[in-house]
Design a protein that fits this description.
Length: about 325
């Protein structure tokens, strides 16, 4: 019997993009079955009609589209519902406004079949804004790091929904009730972090999905003021998720505190950047000192701060940086 790959797509008022998303899954071919689980999270548009038309098409191809409709519970609630229906050996998430590229599932599936030592695999992808595309990642350190847990906590790994595939057995060993923290943020992080902890992740250095950036979306806004508010909301949503997950995953107190301190340093960095953007010098100085005390601030970040608050000191730091580059043989 062919192995099964499950894909969960949470959908809320996605009538303009859901056909593209579902078609990108339907079009995948390989020596596997596909189980698409679409959770309609209280849509009030024509999403249901569009999704329903795909059900017989999937059946004719030997695939399955499971359609679940519920009252609006937010992304976390939609994923929790979808997880109850997963029966595949492998699992991916895909947002309703994004899509897989041709061969995406086959390449991930084949990779994990050939590399049993990995609990999951990530891929590169395209970030598309009004037709202009750029790759998620070009930094080899971020793409080749097998220690995804450290990479995610340290900001050295990408985590786009739709860019990974994981082994469901490992996931459900951590979530025997198939219930994640019902937040509106970071659902994919709640799947990746527990699977990645003390395990290894592979990487396919090829763009295998497209993430479409939309104005006024969850992360994008049309004005600077609104963008600042959304950035703040998004940051603290993810800050909450990471703090919760580290506390749930790591039993050892010292190790847990180590990672929580890293996450706390993010807060100081975020508040420093926000204060600088808002021109609040008092708050900026406060959060700069707090961030500096963590030992995680970079020389470039110090230069950026002092360029706006103490230009003379910034010049000396630039000289220091240049000397360091010369000593390392960098021109």
């Amino acid at each position: 019997m062919k192995q099964k790959i499950s894909v969960i797509v949470p959908c809320f008022n996605s009538e303009s993009t859901i056909d593209r998303c579902i078609d990108s899954i339907y079009s995948q071919d390989g020596e596997f079955q596909i189980e698409l689980i679409v959770v309609n999270d209280g849509s009030t548009d024509q999403s249901e009609n569009r999704i329903s038309k795909w059900i017989p098409l999937f059946a004719d191809k030997g695939y399955e589209l499971k359609y679940i409709k519920q009252e609006n519970q937010g992304p976390g609630g939609a994923i929790n519902t979808g997880l109850k229906y997963v029966s595949g050996e492998y699992l991916s998430l895909l947002d309703a406004d994004d899509c897989f590229l041709q061969g995406s599932i086959k390449k991930r599936f084949s990779y994990l079949e050939e590399h049993r030592e990995y609990v999951g695999v990530r891929t590169n992808g395209w970030q598309d804004k009004q037709g202009e595309r750029k790759l998620f990642d070009l930094d080899p350190e971020r793409t080749t790091n097998e220690n995804l847990f450290d990479g995610l906590i340290g900001g050295r790994a990408t985590n786009w929904a739709g860019s990974y595939m994981i082994r469901t057995q490992v996931l459900f060993d951590f979530y025997p009730t198939r219930e994640i923290y019902a937040s509106r943020f970071g659902q994919h992080m709640q799947l990746l972090l527990p699977v990645a902890y003390k395990n290894r992740f592979g990487y396919i250095d090829e763009p295998l999905m497209i993430y479409f950036l939309q104005d006024n979306s969850h992360s994008q806004a049309s004005t600077q003021e609104e963008q600042l508010r959304k950035d703040d909301r998004n940051f603290y949503g993810y800050y909450d998720i990471y703090t919760h997950m580290v506390s749930e995953i790591i039993a050892d107190k010292d190790e847990r505190e180590f990672y929580l301190n890293i996450i706390e340093s993010w807060k100081y960095k975020h508040e420093l950047n926000k204060s600088m953007q808002c021109g609040d010098k008092v708050a900026a100085q406060k959060y700069f000192r707090l961030y500096e005390d963590t030992g995680r601030i970079t020389l470039n970040e110090k230069i950026d701060y002092y360029s706006k608050t103490n230009p003379i000191r910034a010049v000396w730091l630039k000289v220091y940086r240049r000397i360091g580059m010369v000593l390392k043989g960098t021109k």
